[in-house]
Design a protein that fits this description.
Blueprint (H helix, E strand, L loop, with lengths): L7 H4 L23 E2 L6 E6 L2 E10 L2 E4 L11 E5 L8 E4 L5 E3 L6 E4 L21 E6 L19 E8 L14 E5 L13 E5 L5 E10 L4 E6 L4 H10 L3
Antiparallel strand pairs: 1-10, 2-3, 2-5, 3-4, 4-8, 5-6, 7-8, 9-10, 9-12, 10-11, 11-14, 12-13, 13-14
Length: about 240
């Protein structure tokens, strides 16, 4: 990402979005150094024109949240696979026509799908996103680094990594974060191509895992940015309730 139009596609959208300039990014690997996830029933693999491209999260029985750049155009054939930690399995669902709603001020979208038999991930609140707090990133992204194509090495199994929230003004985040985002630094790993739209989670005071972010961009080496779901809570609830109309 060379400007505040940021590297949205650099993190994911490997199929239709791979046209985004990967030359701007550093070495990549899927949740590098992370681990295979044993949990994530609400995690969604996103396909564009039949190719595994992004990650998402079920936030209501008929709604998936993902990165806006993953579902930007109506002529993209966007489908989802839900209910399995292995992207080759699970239930297939197609987005409902005219059912994509884009968030104000963040690279986040809600996509309507036929009703899913999946327990949604609850939404976090504002006290979940604080500098220095560790959050967990999930995705099915790339498992190789350039010069290999990220499209050639997407993970079949869901992976996760711990990352840590850093100051919005951290110079490393300068080209990645917008006003509606938070920035994280690499921890046990860092998300890359194919992880776009994937969840960042934290644990609330009751010990529940909750959604706090939607992956927007990554520099592939040090930092990544997430759309701040805690700022979008009211918008998400409004869309789920009204369909965005």
């Amino acid at each position: 990402m060379l400007s505040k139009s940021r590297v949205y596609g650099a993190v994911g959208a490997i199929g239709a979005c791979i046209a985004f300039s990967l030359a701007t990014a550093g070495p990549a690997s899927a949740i590098q150094g992370g681990t295979v996830s044993k949990h994530g029933p609400w995690a969604v693999r996103v396909y564009i024109d039949g190719e595994p491209s992004c990650t998402g999260t079920v936030v209501a029985s008929e709604w998936v949240i993902t990165a806006g750049h993953c579902v930007r155009y109506d002529n993209w054939d966007v489908t989802f696979r839900v209910g399995s930690l292995d992207q080759r399995h699970g239930t297939a669902a197609r987005r409902v026509k005219n059912g994509t709603v884009f968030a104000p001020g963040a690279d986040v979208a809600l996509v309507r799908v036929p009703r899913l038999d999946v327990e949604p991930l609850a939404l976090g609140t504002g006290d979940s996103v604080k500098v220095g707090r560790g959050v967990r990133s999930y995705g099915w992204g790339a498992t190789c680094a350039p010069p290999r194509s990220e499209a050639s090495c997407q993970s079949n199994v869901l992976k996760q990594a711990q990352v840590t929230i850093v100051r919005h003004t951290d110079p490393r985040c300068d080209l990645l974060v917008g006003t509606g985002d938070f920035c994280v630094r690499r921890g046990t790993g860092l998300p890359a191509g194919g992880d776009s739209g994937g969840p960042a989670t934290a644990f609330d005071k009751a010990g529940r895992e909750v959604l706090v972010g939607v992956l927007s961009a990554s520099d592939r080496t040090e930092v990544a940015s997430f759309g701040d779901v805690t700022r979008l809570r009211k918008w998400i609830k409004w869309v789920v309730r009204t369909g965005g109309h």
